[in-house]
Design goal:
mainly alpha; 0% strand
């Protein structure tokens, strides 16, 4: 990965990555430090991605739950409306029977 990199190149890259650099370190130590920094950065990116996925999944599940609650509420409202209609029809039939029985006034 850093086969032809000079010590100065490695120091520059590490400094750009906001890493402290001891000038007494050799090329191998600098390469190792750079690889460790890169690994940590990759791990942090992975954690961030996983956290974003988790949040997105939580939002998706919340939306599903909200939709299900809305469906339940709509079904309840429809059932109540149908019950009121049945009651009204039942009253109409009762009144009609009463009128028919009493001679219809």
């Amino acid at each position: 990965m850093f086969e032809n990199a000079t010590k100065e190149d490695l120091v520059t890259v590490l400094l750009e990555m906001r890493e402290t650099v001891d000038t007494d370190l050799g090329i191998m130590e600098l390469k190792q430090k750079l690889m460790l920094k890169e690994r940590r950065r990759n791990e942090e990116e992975y954690k961030k991605k996983e956290e974003l996925k988790k949040k997105a999944e939580e939002r998706r599940l919340e939306r599903i739950q909200e939709l299900e609650l809305a469906r339940i509420e709509a079904a309840r409202w429809k059932a109540e409306k149908e019950a009121r209609i049945r009651e009204a029809r039942h009253k109409e039939v009762k009144v009609a029977r009463l009128k028919a029985h009493t001679g219809g006034s």
